[in-house]
Amino acid sequence: MKCPMCGTNTQFNFLYCPNCGYKIALEVEQPIPNWRQLPGFRSKTPWKMILAIMIYVWILLAIVASFFGGII
Q1: Domain range spanning residue 59?
Q2: Residue 38 DSSP class
Q3: How far apart are CA 24 and CA 3, in angstroms?
Q4: Who's near 6: CB < 8 A, 6+ residues apart?
Q5: Residue 67 per-residue DSSP state
Q6: By three-state DSSP, how is residue 29 classified?
Q7: pTM over the 0.70 mark
Q8: Considering the domain boundaries, does residue 55 fall inside one?
Q9: 19, 32, 63, 64: which has the highest count of C-beta atoms within 10 A?
C-alpha cells in the first residue's frame, strides 16, 4: 500500500503511515444487495434483467399451478 501524502510503500495495510503519520483510508468492500446476486441481475444488462423476470414469473406460476392441480 502506498501513502498518498509522502509516497512511502508499505507491505501491510496500516491505518496510519509509519513514515509521516497520515491517516490512510482503507478500502472497504461494499456488500452486494441480495437482489443483485440473482442470475440475470448481476450484469445490469436490461435484456438479461427482462428475460430473468419473465423466467422467474414463469417458474412462480408453475409452482402455484402445481399446488392447485392445474386448475389455473
Answers
A1: 34-67
A2: S
A3: 7
A4: 17, 19, 20, 22
A5: H
A6: coil
A7: no
A8: yes
A9: 19
CA distance 17 to 6: 9
Kindly provide the b/e burial profile for residues 18-55, where b requires at least 16 CB atoms within 10 angstroms of the residue's own CB: eeeeeebeeeeeeeeeeeeeeebbeeeeeeeeeebeee
Tell me whether residue 20 is in a domain.
yes
Q: Which amino acid is at 42?
A: R
pLDDT digits (tens, 9 = 90+) for 20-70: 888 877 666 667 667 667 777 777 788 988 998 999 999 999 988 888 875
The radius of gyration of the chain's CA atoms, rounded to the nearest angstrom, is 25
Q: How is residue 38 written as a grid cell?
A: 440473482
Distances, alpha carbon 67 to alpha carbons 21, 53, 64, in Å: 65, 21, 5
